UniProtKB/TrEMBL annotation:
Organism of origin: Trichomonas vaginalis (strain ATCC PRA-98 / G3)
BP term (GO), one: G1/S transition of mitotic cell cycle
Protein name as it appears in the record: Cyclin, N-terminal domain containing protein
Alphabetized InterPro entries for the sequence: Cyclin, Cyclin-like_dom, Cyclin-like_sf, Cyclin_C-dom, Cyclin_N
Family under the similarity heading: Belongs to the cyclin family.
Classification via SUPFAM superfamilies: Cyclin-like
Gene3D superfamilies: Cyclin-like
One cellular component (GO) term of this entry: cyclin-dependent protein kinase holoenzyme complex
Cyclin C-terminal domain residues: 248-364
Keywords: Cyclin
Length: 372
């Protein structure tokens, strides 16, 4: 009996103590629904009531919950000098064109019924990459490497990429990184392999779900350098390009143009073969990625007996056959050189069954009519 009385006194004292703490609080008070504590208020934060939201809303001035007020769409509206202005108005479009924005004819691409196909954003992505391509400096070789040495190294990077079974996008990003490094730092025959592998390592981290490990890269390169040397060159290369790894590549544009031109598995592999061989040639170093991809499309269409270039492709890319004629000529010359050392492995790779032996295809002489 005494123990029960003591517990009752302590319980009453604690309830009285908490009541005094919250008595002068500005927080909303709601009556306790429990019959044992009926009428005793407690902090709102501890209430678990289905009507909590409505009671809180009723305590706030009604103008905050004015359902008639339109909330501006952050995508369609921008603030300029305190005034709201539609970012997609004709006035804005004209100003963007005047500023040198890329303009092209929009062509439906992809399947609108496919939820994984970004048909609504395809043109926006394409224009963004073309505009970035226009702002991107051309990669003109200023190093000690000769054009042939560079071509052999690109072929070697292709070999390491194939042995490591990396994503296709990784190869083109690695070549782009290496070419930028050629223009910004001194690369010679002694350190070109470690620079090339460092570019592949960075590209793999950008494109592959599971990037290539340093140990595997060194093993694929047959221990031409150590792991520490590769890590140092990776950091050096990242600083040289100012950590700007997101640039357009020919492979990105090739995928879009193939969807417009029409593709099969064989034609896609043949176009990739043409493009990889072109990237080993020094004449294509300062050619924009979209032009490299367009050149590959022209040669592929000629091989399959189609019209080399049509109005859709010209309107979408902004290139005419006349614009591409010099690139087509350079591509034809290197594709018809079977013993060319700079593309030795690429030819071997695309001659195998997984690549449908497309490197064995005979390049038609009718291509010469496009640049004569």
């Amino acid at each position: 009996m005494n123990a029960f009385c003591i517990r009752l006194i302590i319980s009453s004292w604690m309830k009285s103590f908490f009541f005094k703490i919250h008595k002068g609080s500005d927080q909303p008070k709601i009556a306790e629904t429990n019959s044992h504590n009926k009428g005793r208020p407690r902090p709102f934060s501890r209430i678990n009531n289905g009507n909590q939201h409505e009671k809180l809303r009723s305590s706030i001035p009604p103008e905050i919950f004015d359902d008639q007020e339109e909330v501006p769409d952050e995508i369609d509206m921008v603030l300029s000098d305190g005034n709201r202005k539609n970012s997609y108005s004709e006035e804005n479009d004209d100003s963007q064109i005047n500023k040198g924005k890329f303009v092209h004819i929009e062509i439906p691409i992809g399947d609108p019924e496919d939820s994984q196909d970004v048909t609504d954003y395809e043109h926006i992505i394409y224009r963004t990459m073309r505009e970035r391509e226009l702002r991107f400096p051309n990669c003109l070789v200023k190093s000690e490497l000769t054009p042939k040495q560079r071509g052999i190294l690109i072929d070697w990077i292709d070999r390491i990429h194939y042995k490591a079974q990396l994503n296709t996008r990784t190869l083109y990003r690695a070549i782009g990184l290496f070419d930028r490094a050629l223009n910004l730092t001194d690369i010679n025959s002694e350190n070109m392999q470690v620079f090339g592998c460092a570019a592949l390592l960075i590209a793999s981290k950008m494109e592959d779900i599971i990037p290539i490990q340093v140990e595997i890269a060194v093993n694929c390169a047959k221990n031409a350098f150590t792991k520490d040397e590769l890590r140092k060159k990776e950091m050096q290369l990242a600083n040289i390009v100012d950590f700007d790894f997101a640039f357009p590549t020919p492979y990105f544009f090739l995928g879009i143009l193939l969807r417009i031109s029409g593709q099969t598995q064989e034609s896609m592999l043949f176009a990739r073969y043409v493009m990889e061989v072109c990237m080993t040639c020094s004449n294509f170093i300062d050619v924009r990625p979209s032009a490299v991809a367009s050149t590959s499309i022209v040669i592929t269409r000629v091989y399959y007996g189609e019209v080399p270039w049509n109005e859709k492709l010209e309107g979408y890319t902004g290139y005419s056959l006349e614009n591409l004629s010099e690139h087509i000529k350079d591509a034809y010359e290197i594709l018809t050189m079977p013993d060319r050392e700079e593309s030795k492995f690429i030819r071997l790779k695309y001659s195998t069954p997984p690549f449908l032996g497309v490197s064995k295809f005979e390049i038609p002489d009718s291509i010469t009519e496009l640049f004569v």
